[in-house]
Design a protein that fits this description.
Blueprint (H helix, E strand, L loop, with lengths): L3 H17 L38 E7 L12 H10 L1 E7 L5 H8 L5 E4 L2 H7 L8 H8 L7 H8 L17 H5 L9 E6 H6 L8 H14 L4 E4 L6 H4 L25 H13 L13 H9 L3 E7 L3 H9 L8 E3 L9 E3 L5 E4 L6 H11 L2 H9 L6 E3 L5 E3 L1 H8 L3 H5 L11 H11 L2 H13 L1 E3 L12 H21 L4 H18 L1 H19 L3
Parallel strand pairs: 1-2, 1-3, 5-6, 8-12
Antiparallel strand pairs: 3-9, 4-6, 4-7, 10-11
Helix pairs in contact: 1-18, 2-15, 5-14, 12-13, 20-21, 20-22
Length: 535
C-alpha cells in the first residue's frame, strides 16, 4: 500500500482548498437585490417512519452550489453513486458561474430544490420562511428523534430573524464535543524545528522565552551557516506564545475582546521580533517575505533550524523537503510552551438550504440527517467503505488502494466528485481527524495538549465586522498598518528607535478608529455570547 501519511496529506490538502475558499465569498454581498417572496408551503404527513431516506424510492434533487471554483461540474462520481445506492438520493447539479448568480436567482424566485453557499450574507437571505424550509420544523415533522444541540441551533438561527434555523453549517461542533473527542487535530500557528539538530544540542528545554532564546543562541554558535529561525509574516500566532498573548482573540486591559494592538502584551510581542532580529536569530529580509514559497525554501535547502507555519502536519511536509538535501534531517513540531494561549474559533462554514420549491422536503431533511452521521460523513467524502476507505480503531479513517491510486494520479476529483462539504455534512471534528490521523505520535500529543488548553469559541468568528461597514474598513486599515510597521519595529536598531516607531504606529491606529473597532468587537462578542448561550 502507498505511504499512508503521504496519502492523507494529499486528502487533507484537497479538503483545505474546499474549506478555506469561501463558496461565492464569505463577504457580505454587494448586491442590493431583494429576494422575491412566495407563499410558505404546508408540510405533508410523513411517508415513512424511517429516520433516513428509502433507497428503494429514488429522488433526484435539483441542487445549486454557490462555488465557481469547484473542480468538477457534476456529482456523478463514485461518491455520488454510493450515496444514491445507500439513500436513493441523486442530484441534478448546477455549479455557479459567478458570484452574482445566486442573487439573481433569489431576486427572480426561480429556485432549485437545494442551495448550498458559504457566504454569510447569502445565508441570511436564504434564512427566511418564504424562501426556505426551517430545519427545526422539518425535523419536528419528519425526524423527531434527531437531536440538535441547543448551541448549534442558536448558531444557525443567528442568520434568521424569526428564531428558526434554516441550515446546519458544516465544520461546526460544540465546545463540549470537541473537548471530549480523542482525535481532534486543531490547526494553529506553530513552530517546526530540525529534530536532528535539536538532538545534537542535547534536546534542551524550550518551555519559555528565555530557554527558547538560549537554544537559538546555541544554534547560531554551533551552526554558523544556518539561520536560527524563519517566521512566516502571515502567521504570527506561533511567536505569540513567547509572551503569552492570545493572537486568536486578544483582549484589552479589562479582558474585553479587542484588536490586538490594544492588548497589554502587544508591546512585548512586537519587541520580541526586534529581539530576535538584533540577536541575529532572524534575517532582516525575513520581514519582507510575501509568500509561503519564500519560507519553504529554508526547508528545501536545509538552512533553517526553526520555521513557523501551521500545526496541520507541516512538520512532515518540511521533513519531506529537507530529506532531498539531507537524508538524516527531519522536522518536528515544538511542544507548546508554558505561556501558550490561543483561541480557536469554531462557528461553521457552508450551509445547505431546502427551498420552498423543493419537491420532497421530507426526503431532503432525512438525507441531511443521514449525511451528518459520523460514518456517512466519510462516505460523502471518499466513497465506498471497504473499497475506498476503512475505519481505524482510534475513530479516524484511512484510504484504501483504490482511492489512493486515484488520488496520486490526479483523478480523485473527476472519479469521486466529493459531496461532503457541498451538503454541509462534515463537522469540525471529522475534518480535523485528517490532521490527527496523519500525525506522528509526538504531534498527536501536541494536538491533545492544544485541544485541552485552547480557548475554544463558537462566537468569536461571528464578531467579524460586515463587509462595507465602518468597522470592517477600520479593521482592514489596521491590518495593513500592522503589516507595514512589523518590519519597521522588527528591524529597529535601538530601543529608542523601536519606541518611537511603536508610538507612531499606535497614534496612527487611534486616528484610523481603533477605539471604535474595539467597542464594536467587545459589545458584539458579549451580546452574541448571551444570545447564543456559548462563548
Amino acid at each position: 500500500m502507498c505511504n499512508l501519511k503521504r496519502v492523507l496529506s494529499l486528502i487533507l490538502a484537497a479538503m483545505l482548498i474546499f474549506s478555506t475558499v469561501a463558496c461565492g465569498g464569505n463577504e457580505d454581498d454587494p448586491s442590493s437585490s431583494t429576494p422575491s417572496t412566495s407563499e410558505k408551503s404546508e408540510l405533508s404527513e410523513s411517508k415513512s417512519d424511517s429516520p433516513y431516506p428509502d433507497p428503494n424510492n429514488p429522488v433526484k434533487f435539483t441542487f445549486f452550489a454557490d462555488c465557481t471554483w469547484l473542480p468538477y461540474d457534476n456529482l456523478d462520481g463514485i461518491t455520488g453513486k454510493e450515496i444514491e445506492r445507500l439513500t436513493g438520493v441523486s442530484f441534478d447539479f448546477i455549479k455557479a458561474t459567478d458570484s452574482e448568480q445566486l442573487n439573481l436567482m433569489l431576486a427572480s424566485g426561480d429556485l432549485p430544490d437545494l442551495i448550498m453557499t458559504g457566504s454569510s450574507a447569502k445565508q441570511s437571505k436564504l434564512s427566511r420562511s418564504d424562501i426556505s424550509y426551517a430545519y427545526n420544523e422539518l425535523i419536528a415533522q419528519y425526524a423527531p428523534d434527531w437531536e440538535i444541540p441547543e448551541i448549534e441551533k442558536n448558531i444557525n438561527s443567528y442568520y434568521s430573524e424569526d428564531d428558526n434555523f434554516y441550515m446546519l453549517r458544516n465544520e461546526f461542533n460544540t465546545i463540549d464535543q470537541i473537548l471530549t473527542s480523542e482525535t481532534v487535530g486543531p490547526n494553529f500557528g506553530q513552530m517546526h524545528m530540525r529534530e536532528d539538530i535539536y538532538k545534537a544540542l542535547g534536546s534542551p528545554s524550550m518551555n519559555n522565552k528565555e530557554e527558547f532564546y538560549e537554544v537559538l543562541s546555541q544554534v547560531k554558535e554551533k551552526y554558523p551557516d544556518m539561520v536560527p529561525m524563519v517566521f512566516n509574516p502571515r502567521e504570527l500566532g506561533s511567536i505569540a506564545q513567547l509572551v503569552g498573548i492570545d493572537y486568536g482573540m486578544p483582549t484589552d486591559e479589562n479582558g474585553n475582546y479587542s484588536h490586538v494592538m490594544s492588548d497589554p502584551k502587544y508591546y512585548d510581542f512586537m519587541l520580541t521580533f526586534n529581539e530576535l532580529y538584533k540577536n541575529g536569530y532572524l534575517l532582516k529580509e525575513n520581514f519582507t517575505y510575501e509568500n509561503d514559497d519564500q519560507i519553504f525554501q529554508y526547508a528545501s535547502n536545509g538552512n533553517a533550524f526553526i520555521i513557523t507555519h501551521y500545526a496541520g502536519n507541516d512538520d512532515q511536509t518540511f521533513t519531506g523537503m529537507v530529506k532531498s538535501v539531507d537524508e538524516n534531517a527531519s522536522f518536528v513540531q515544538v511542544p507548546l510552551m508554558e505561556d501558550w494561549n490561543y483561541t480557536l474559533g469554531v462557528s461553521g462554514w457552508s450551509g445547505l438550504f431546502i427551498t420552498q420549491e423543493c419537491q420532497d422536503p421530507e426526503t431532503a431533511i432525512k438525507f441531511m440527517r443521514w449525511a451528518k452521521e459520523p460514518v456517512n460523513q466519510i462516505t460523502t467524502m471518499m466513497g465506498v467503505q471497504g473499497e475506498d476507505w476503512e475505519l481505524l480503531d482510534d475513530g479516524g479513517f484511512a484510504p484504501l488502494p483504490k482511492f489512493t491510486e486515484a488520488l496520486e494520479s490526479g483523478n480523485k476529483d473527476a472519479l469521486y466528485t466529493p459531496v461532503s462539504f457541498l451538503v454541509a455534512a462534515t463537522d469540525y471534528i471529522r475534518e480535523s481527524n485528517n490532521f490527527y490521523a496523519n500525525a506522528t505520535p509526538a504531534t498527536k500529543e501536541i494536538y491533545k495538549d492544544a485541544t485541552q488548553r485552547a480557548n475554544w469559541s463558537n462566537v468569536v468568528y461571528l464578531c467579524y465586522p460586515k463587509s462595507g461597514s465602518d468597522e470592517r474598513i477600520i479593521m482592514n486599515d489596521l491590518s495593513d498598518l500592522e503589516s507595514e510597521y512589523l518590519s519597521l519595529l522588527g528591524t529597529a536598531e535601538t530601543q529608542e528607535e523601536f519606541d518611537k516607531v511603536y508610538n507612531e504606529m499606535i497614534t496612527i491606529a487611534e486616528e484610523i478608529g481603533l477605539a471604535q473597532l474595539n467597542e464594536y468587537l467587545s459589545t458584539t462578542y458579549q451580546s452574541l455570547s448571551e444570545e447564543l448561550g456559548t462563548k
